Structures are given as structure tokens and as C-alpha cells.
Predict the structure of 8-amino-7-ketopelargonate synthase.
Amino acid sequence: MSRLDSFLEAALARIERAGQRRTLRASTLAPGGRVLREGRELVDFSSNDYLGLARHPLLVERAREWTAAHGTGSGASRLVTGTSAAHLALEAKIAAFKGTEAALLFATGWQANAAVIPALLAAIPGAAVFTDRLIHASMHAGVSMAGVRQHRFRHNDLDHLETLLASKGADAPARLILTESVFSMDGDRADLPRLAALAEAHDAALFVDEAHATGVLGPQGKGLSAEVPGRIDLIMGTFSKALGGFGAYVAGSQVLIDYLVNTASGFVFTTAPPPAVLGAIDAALDIVPGMEAERAHLAALGERLRTGLAALGLDHGASSTQIVPAMIGAEEDTLALSAKLEAAGFLASAIRPPTVPPGTSRLRLALRASHAREDVDAFLAALKAAL
Ligand code: PMP
């Protein structure tokens, strides 16, 4: 064994002892809210393909057409030769969808958050950063890359944020608030009107991650940012969840986008998204605004699932979206429950530390518009038996 491998073996053994070693398992999304895993078809409550677009014929066809016309690779990074007319047209389309002056494509949501936050903070040395405790790992990565201390407020507790804004960083040249509009592991929403008002009152910039809201919530699926038009400085979101594709966007003012084109390392130093990815996004943006029936169905499924969980005595936190946690608590119990459900034909992933705080292990249930009400009922019956 090489010297490197022996260190890594020891590190993996520590992860194993902590009960946190994970392995990859092959899965394939299937129609009807199903997933194929190791030869079995399971009812899927674990994927983020909320609107069923990942296999939609229009997206598949446009990805194919754009590949046939322009090839499989973009050839270079955006500032070299990687920017095609399609990139620019798509960015204009995203800005129109989000109601902002401009928008910029990123390879992934993780990369966008990890690149944009340090770039912003480089322009305002000494800025005070205020973060919801439950923001995504990629935003934490961005803040830590910037080497800035963050003032964390209790999850969705805007009284706490207000206290911090009043007491911390009074002498800072600027303030930045980071949050999500729909939280990925809890399915609850941020109060954007109050956040925007707080940001305005304390002269802070507001950064909102709409990864799980884009396509699903707001008028025409434009996200919750549509509740506060023009009042969020930077909106970030992904195409990899409800939009059924891959990649991410940042939307905001033209100055913001021009600045990021020049400075965000995960934009400047990476290859431009390829034609297939652009084609799928372009098609998704054509059909998402009209998917009101799917959005209403998802909302109704969410209500049904929450009512059923409550009847079983399970806490679903403050979920009000297509993401519904079934709070279990201990890691081992959550893993055992997830395994029993899988044996019964349902994929309900156990989410545990470090993804969520200790003692809050849960089944993270994600609904898909292709689920029938009967799928939710059958899941609740299986869960009751497993409990
Ligand atoms: N932000 C949030 C809130 C997320 O849940 C995720 C994905 N898990 C990301 C960013 C990262 O997006 P991507 O998967 O496109 O890298």
C-alpha cells in the first residue's frame, strides 16, 4: 500500500467508526415517480426531479438537436472561445424568467456558490456576513474560501438576524445576508418580504439560493424571489432539480454579472457548459411556466404526506413544499427505517449528520409530480408498518 493510501485507509476507518462511511449505489430515474435500483423498481421519494422533466421528450430532443448542431463540447472557458451565441441567448432568457437585468450560467450550483461568494467578498474587504444556520454546504464553502467570519442566525429566526444586524459589524463597510428560499433538507421557506425589509433597513445586500424553489414555487415557477421583485441583490438557482437538467444560474444587476465574469474563479477557470446542457435548459424554460397543474399536484401531495405523517405521530418540521422531512432523531433508527422501507419497495433516504445537525436525522421525502396520491398512501402504510 502506498504512503498516501495508508493515510487514507486510516481516515476512512475513522469515518467508518463514526458510522458515517457511505458507498455509491447505481440508480436510474424511471417514469411514474419510480427509480430503478439494483434491478428493483422502487417508489422514489429521494430524487429532486420534482416536475418530471429529467426524461421529458422536449428536453431530450432539444439536447439531442443542439448536440447534433454544435457538438458535444464547448471547447474552452467562457472568456476564451467557450461563449456561443446560445450561451448569451440563454442567459437573456434566464434573466427574463427571473425578472432581473442579467444572468450568468455556472457549471453547477455548488460551483456557483463556492465561486460567487468569495468573489463578492473580495470587492468589499471587511464585510460582515450573516448566514442562516442551515444554508447549503456550498455557501459555507464560499464563505470559508473567502476567509471571512460569519455571524450565524438561528434557522429562519429573523428576530435573531435583526439582533445580529443591530449588534455585529457596525463598522463593517458592507453587510451580506445569505439564505435559501426553500431549505433543502427541511422543505420550509424563508420569509423573503421580511428579509428584504431587514436588508434594506440595515443597508445589507441579500443573496438567496433558489435551488429547490426554481420551477416549483412562485408565479409560473419563477421561484419565491418573485414575491419581492427587484429587492434581492443576488439570486442563485439550479437547473439540476425541478428543471430536469444540469447547471446553475446567478441572476441580478448587469454590474453584478459583469463583475462575476471578471472575478468568479469557478466561472473564469472552467470550461463553458456544453450544447446538450444548454438545449435541455432552454427547453425546460419554455415549458416550466405552463406547468401549473403539476405544481398544484405537488402542493396537494405535500399536504397529503404531511397530514399522514402527523397521523403517525411523526414531526415534519415547518415543511410547506414538495420536500417533507419525517423527523426520526437518532441516526441508527433512521437508517433502519430507511432500510425497511427499501425492502418494502420505497426509496426514502436517511439524512444524518453532518448533512443535518446531530439528533435531527430524518427521512428526507421529496415528491415528484409523477407520483399518484396512491403512492403517498402506500408509502404511509409501509412507514406505519416499518415503525
Ligand atoms: N444549493 C442548494 C440549496 C442545494 O440543495 C444544492 C444541491 N444539493 C446546491 C446548491 C448545489 O447545486 P448542484 O447540485 O447544481 O451543484
Summary: Residues 108-110, 113, 136, 138, 180, 184, 209, 211, 238, 240, 248 surround 4'-deoxy-4'-aminopyridoxal-5'-phosphate (CB under 6 Å). The chain has two domains: 24-51+291-386, 58-289. The radius of gyration is 21 Å.
